[in-house]
Design a protein that fits this description.
The chain is mainly alpha-helical. It has one domain. Helix content is 80%, strand content 0%. Helix 2 runs antiparallel to helix 3, helix 2 runs antiparallel to helix 7 and helix 4 runs antiparallel to helix 5. The longest helix has 30 residues.
Length: 186
Amino acid sequence: MNPADDLRFIRDTMERSAAFTAVSGWGYMILGATALGAAALAAHQLSAAAWLRVWLAEGLLAMAVGLLSCTWKANRRGLPLFSGPARKVALSLSPPLVAGAFLTFVLFRAGLDSALPATWLLLYGAGIITGGAFSVAIVPIMGICFMLLGGLAVLAPAAWGNLFLAAGFGGLHVAFGFLIARRHGG
């Protein structure tokens, strides 16, 4: 092996073992604020289809905010956005989110829209736990909180579903976003 190969091997090894630190606490707080707005708007919808449209729009907005805020933090700190840890986070987070998207349409079509809040919270929490395994330590804890809230949503009256979504996607994102911003530089 020549010195260039040695350096490449060392760099690749370090990259694979590093944590994804471009998680944006400020981005999570913005996600939380938009989710609280979506919950308020969704609560005033007259049909289940209109309620679902509000939350689907919020999901798309949340993805855009999440990607932009991670990109902003990575650029600001000089971190590679598509590093080994970032790919691991994305590959771990994606399957539960894709499953949630498909289950949304299956459950809604079957008239089981009351199961959506628990489904979304549980699957998002699972994705955050698995993706967070390659990130800063507080991220998987946030995922556990989402799953606990989703479990409570399963047991609670269906009429409380929107409140659980506000508490999870709103409250948990704001609270953990604050902690991440404070402890991990934005």
